[in-house]
């Protein structure tokens, strides 16, 4: 097989005296095989070409530098063509004797050509199969990339709103069918507009990326799904329902994650805080949007209450059937208490 555009040939298979030899590579230059590929043959060599094949009846061993140390007397070479009619390799036959006359040379050429046709057919089948497999793999990878891009938020690398809608619809359907509970947590960055106004939108994007990284590092992948659902709002989708104590553990985990965020030096004055709301499904819900509305209302109730003068921001604000809390990034972990 010719390693185009190189002048190196890779031997796929070789036999000597009926015994198969290991494959190897060699340079075409100054070998009988070179005559198969060259189009600028001198008059001496043109007479030895029969169509696209080459036949040398005698004296091969001293005609080429590569065969000087051999006992080769005759050579027959037949090209192999790919499906696009491009030369891709050749079949070569070396003899330790001369071919007695033109008739014998032509007969051997015909035999080698018949053999080469079978080799060529099998090689083309293999190449087409490889090309097909390569094309299928490339298609699979392209589809995978498109799938990833279609469900990923380009800024934060979290899942996007489109995928959020798909997944929450799926878990709500399972809840209606088999009472398989789930919990939705919404997070919203407080005073995000003021960050954009003071530092610019690029800085705002930086805050979102830092927050997304912190949240991703403190969630259980494939169990707790993270989404950026729009602007400065994030969502977590968790399987199962939770007691207040269990929600406190989740809240503490989020609190620690936000508290440990270190923004770039030029934004050192930013006090990053978030408001949180959560909800789970109810039997009377007609669709998942009801769950989302409750969590969203809880989140904004927490955000509204934390703005009131004199509010103790180190304590949670319980405003929904499950929980809602707001906190500062430098506060102690909030302790949740039942709604009364």
UniProtKB/TrEMBL annotation:
Its EC number is 2.7.7.65. It catalyses: 2 GTP = 3',3'-c-di-GMP + 2 diphosphate. The keyword Oxidoreductase does not apply. One of its GO terms (molecular function) is diguanylate cyclase activity. It is an enzyme of class 2 (transferase). InterPro entries: Diguanylate_Cyclase (IPR050469), GGDEF_dom (IPR000160), Nucleotide_cyclase (IPR029787), Rev_trsase/Diguanyl_cyclase (IPR043128). Keywords: Coiled coil, Nucleotidyltransferase, Transferase. The keyword Coiled coil applies. Residues 118-152 form a coiled coil. Pfam families: GGDEF (PF00990). Residues 180-316 form the GGDEF domain. NCBIfam families: GGDEF. This is diguanylate cyclase.
């Amino acid at each position: 097989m010719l390693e185009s555009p190189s002048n190196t040939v890779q031997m796929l298979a070789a036999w000597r005296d009926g015994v198969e030899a290991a494959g190897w590579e060699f340079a075409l230059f100054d070998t009988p095989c070179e005559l198969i590929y060259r189009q600028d043959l001198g008059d001496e060599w043109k007479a030895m070409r029969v169509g696209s094949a080459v036949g040398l009846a005698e004296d091969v061993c001293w005609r080429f530098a590569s065969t000087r140390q051999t006992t080769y007397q005759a050579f027959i070479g037949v090209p192999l063509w790919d499906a696009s009619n491009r030369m891709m390799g050749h079949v070569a036959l070396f003899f330790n004797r001369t071919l007695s006359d033109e008739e014998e040379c032509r007969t051997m050429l015909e035999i080698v050509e018949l053999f080469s046709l079978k080799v060529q057919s099998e090689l083309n089948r293999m190449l087409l199969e490889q090309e097909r497999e390569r094309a299928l793999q490339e298609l699979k990878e392209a589809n995978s990339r498109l799938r990833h891009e279609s469900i990923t938020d380009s800024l934060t690398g979290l899942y996007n709103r489109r995928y959020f809608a798909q997944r929450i619809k799926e878990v709500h359907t399972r809840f209606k069918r088999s009472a398989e509970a789930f919990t939705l947590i919404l997070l919203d960055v407080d005073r995000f507009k003021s960050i954009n106004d003071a530092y610019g939108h690029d800085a705002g994007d930086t805050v979102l990326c830092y927050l997304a990284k912190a949240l991703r590092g403190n969630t259980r992948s494939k169990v707790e799904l993270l989404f950026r659902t729009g602007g400065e709002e994030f969502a977590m989708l968790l399987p199962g329902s939770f007691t207040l104590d269990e929600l406190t553990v989740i809240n503490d985990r989020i609190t620690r994650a936000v508290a440990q965020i270190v923004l770039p030096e030029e934004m050192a004055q930013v006090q990053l805080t978030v408001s949180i709301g959560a909800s789970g499904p109810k039997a009377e819900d007609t669709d998942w949007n009801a769950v989302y509305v409750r969590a969203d209302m809880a989140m904004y109730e927490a955000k509204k209450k934390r703005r009131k003068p004199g509010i103790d921001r180190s304590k949670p604000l319980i405003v929904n059937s499950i929980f809602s809390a707001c906190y500062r990034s430098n506060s102690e972990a909030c302790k949740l208490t039942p709604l009364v």
